[in-house]
Amino acid sequence: MKKLVMLASTLLVLSPQLVQAEAYVGGKIGYSWLDGECTLDNSCSDDGGAGGIYAGYNFTDMLGLEAGYDYLGDFDAAPFDDSMKVFTLAPKLTIPVNDFDFYAKLGAAWVDYDDIDDTVLVAAIGTEFGLSENVFGRFEYQRINNITEGIVENLDVNSLFFGLTYKFGSAAEPVAAMAVEEVIVEEEVVAVVEEPMPEVRLFQEYGVELFDNDSSKLAPNSEQYFDWLIGVMKKYPQAEAKIVGHTDSRGSAAYNQTLSEKRAQSVADYLFTQGIEESRVTVLGEGESKPKASNDTAEGRMENRRVEVIIDEFEIKQ
């Protein structure tokens, strides 16, 4: 009789990213210019530097709400000569396309210009793109309609901005589930004289990343999740492990490749501190090249951010 024993250990850890909802903050700089005609003075300054800050909350991948405070420039529209500031609040509709998020906003703007306080319509379109796991760039065109009606006819303010956004995530969560299953398959063989067949064991572990946001350092207390691996490596000195890091597609491919390598190396370094020889461990980074799910959704990106630990088949020495 011969036996084939397969032992599979699966460690699932909740992602340190928010699954759907995420908050963000950012800052932007740019340029503004006026559309309209000064009715009381034909010579007026109608363009200048602009900037602002903003914060928002994405309820889903497509729907969010964003508030902002903008300095639009110092405009001379007689009889007024003052800087123009606005507070904006608008829903945000986003459509992900590959590595870019295209968005549109339509909402209200509260305008502070000299002694004029006005509430008008604001609209914007733009695109966002990943620079790292948490930092995103954005280009945006914004238009505010019909400011100071009666002083400047049909005055509209146009702005072009470049912004940097930081999206917050949650801290690493505790282990959600750990399952160990042993399957023993026995089959009768013809009664002939033969050498005993050695047992073969296959170990394979798949785990979602155990790291803080945008970091290659193992999150606090996450090392314990690999104690089972250390136990196997010490019990069976002939076993060799392969550690493979993966990321989602947010951020550049080069950045993701480096991050995946560093995260896999962090797991390997922990093994080395526990007495496992470096010669028995192989470290690889696959970056964003081998997704398990679609990168167009938050759930899919969570599945793709992972570290895999694999112990290939090896012979149990009698």
TrEMBL record:
<keyword id="KW-0732">Signal</keyword>
<keyword id="KW-0472">Membrane</keyword>
<dbReference type="InterPro" id="IPR006690">
    <property type="entry name" value="OMPA-like_CS"/>
</dbReference>
<keyword id="KW-0626">Porin</keyword>
<dbReference type="Pfam" id="PF00691">
    <property type="entry name" value="OmpA"/>
</dbReference>
<dbReference type="InterPro" id="IPR006665">
    <property type="entry name" value="OmpA-like"/>
</dbReference>
<dbReference type="Pfam" id="PF01389">
    <property type="entry name" value="OmpA_membrane"/>
</dbReference>
<feature type="signal peptide">
    <location>
        <begin position="1"/>
        <end position="21"/>
    </location>
</feature>
<keyword id="KW-0813">Transport</keyword>
<keyword id="KW-0998">Cell outer membrane</keyword>
<protein>
    <submittedName>
        <fullName>OmpA family protein</fullName>
    </submittedName>
</protein>
<dbReference type="InterPro" id="IPR050330">
    <property type="entry name" value="Bact_OuterMem_StrucFunc"/>
</dbReference>
<dbReference type="InterPro" id="IPR000498">
    <property type="entry name" value="OmpA-like_TM_dom"/>
</dbReference>
<dbReference type="InterPro" id="IPR006664">
    <property type="entry name" value="OMP_bac"/>
</dbReference>
<feature type="domain" description="OmpA-like">
    <location>
        <begin position="198"/>
        <end position="315"/>
    </location>
</feature>
<keyword id="KW-0406">Ion transport</keyword>
<dbReference type="InterPro" id="IPR036737">
    <property type="entry name" value="OmpA-like_sf"/>
</dbReference>
<dbReference type="InterPro" id="IPR011250">
    <property type="entry name" value="OMP/PagP_B-barrel"/>
</dbReference>
<keyword id="KW-1134">Transmembrane beta strand</keyword>
<comment type="similarity">
    <text>Belongs to the outer membrane OOP (TC 1.B.6) superfamily. OmpA family.</text>
</comment>
<keyword id="KW-0812">Transmembrane</keyword>
